Amino acid sequence: MRMWQTIRSSVFSRHSHQHAYAAIVLSGGYEEAGDQGRFWVEAGDVVLHDRFEAHLNRFPDSGAVVVNLPLPIGHSFSPGLANVPDLDFVIQTAETNQTQAADLLLSTAIVRKVIHADWPDELAVALIQRPSLNLSRWGEMNGLSPWAISRGFMQVFGISPSVFRARTRSRHAWKAIESSGEPLAQIAASLGFSDQPHMTRSVKQMTGLGPQAWRAAANRFKTT
């Protein structure tokens, strides 16, 4: 992934990033729809992406100029849309020292509330907050058939709501494995996995490593 990008009139199909990074929009704007929901970003905005995050991007004819700044492992932040008070200074710092620029950005970033444009956005937020959400019941409460939900959500996010829910559940599990000492079987049960092996397969599919490896890595990090 290049640090500086100028992109015009194109669609980047859904893709994932192994490493955390911040997309700093210098000019123009675009739509992003992914694991953190959907939002329209414009000049001055910053999109904070976590590790293993997937999304698609839609760029209008006017395009956008974006700076991609890698974020170091070990820093805690809330993924999503944010603003930084002195963005020019962050960019200037990044030209000579990306690590310092990332530290500065994360220490001053202010997460921004996203306005939901339509029901697919509301469903995505509901799934992020509750990965065990029953899709049929949600559809009944909102007057939408299963077919309408699947088709409408796919048009916006590039995947079905059931796949989105599975990814969200895997992400919740990965975070819990890294940040807590809770037994793996208990994490699996609390997030609605059929059993612990199901959680193991899901986490490994998303991150490339299984729960035991992530738990061991987290424990090593805490003792260093």
From TrEMBL:
Keywords tagged on the record: DNA-binding, Transcription, Transcription regulation
Keyword DNA-binding: yes
Alphabetized Gene3D superfamilies for the sequence: Homeodomain-like
One Pfam family here: HTH_18
Coiled-coil annotated spans: none
GO molecular function: DNA-binding transcription factor activity; sequence-specific DNA binding
Origin: domain of life: Bacteria
Annotated ranges, domain HTH araC/xylS-type: 128-217
Protein name: Transcriptional regulator, AraC family
